[in-house]
Amino acid sequence: MSLTAHIPSHRKPRRSASKLAVRAGVAGGVLSTLAMAGTASASPSAEPVTETTLEMPVLSLDLAAEVSSSVTKAAENTRAAVLEGELHAQEETARTGAAAEAKKAKEDAQQKADAEEKAKQEKEEADRKAEAERANRSTARASLSTKSGSGATPSDGSGASVAAPATGSAAAIVNFARAQVGKAYVMGGTGPSSFDCSGLVQAAYKQAGISLPRMSQAQSSAGTSVSLNALQPGDILYWGAKGSAYHVAVYVGGGKFVGAQNSSTGIVERSLSYDKPTGAVRVL
Description:
The protein has helices spanning about 15-40, 65-150, 170-180, 195-205, 215-220, and strands spanning about 185, 195, 225, 235-240, 245-255, 255-260, 265-270, 280. The protein is an alpha+beta fold and about 280 residues long. The chain has 2 domains: about 75-150; about 150-280, endopeptidase fold (from Nostoc punctiforme) (Alpha-Beta Complex), CATH 3.90.1720. The strands form 2 sheets. Strands 3-8-4-5-6-7 form a 6-stranded antiparallel sheet. A two-stranded parallel sheet has the order 1-2. A hairpin with a 2-residue loop joins strand 5 (about 245-255) and strand 6. The protein is rod-shaped, with a radius of gyration of 66 Å.
């Protein structure tokens, strides 16, 4: 074996025959083209070749500006849509609130009308009751007058008999009652500076050593019933039904009574014709 067999050769490798043939063909084609071009240029009948230059349109659009404008417009449209939606929502809320207020106002007006109608009916009912009570009192007086007959006893013209002056316990009652004339009427008052109707009657009878119930209802049934045409000083007069009277006074003779009427008049002495009582009872 040669000592240099392992050393690679520095010579260029040989080209293959196929590659050489391709290159030769290409070179030949080029030379043929050049020869034809030279012949054409040398021929006097050949027309000159005019070169034409095509100009491409220049795009001048600013794409960034167009995109920015589109984005801005889209944002404005979105904002407008949001504002419109908020406006619709506010209008709907306003309509709902107005409807609720109108409904409440209608309900309040109806309640007020109902309350006024109820008050009117109650007043009419109270007036009817008062009228019926006055009618009953008039009927009772007429009945008593009919039963008493004419000329039974001397009368003062008011239907009440004229009795002899009060003596004994009756005098004490009458004198005390008359001594209170001019004092104030106070609901619940029992003296000494003010009285209500039953408080005055109770205090007057106390002067004769007689204890009466406190309320007018009980005082109206405390003694024996007597005719209004046969009254004696010291008798208890009452207004309303016996046992449920709403007012009482003391008969002082001469067709008069003393009573604590109301807060406007106080304690007064009045004729029976001023406000005729319903009935009377005698306790003495």
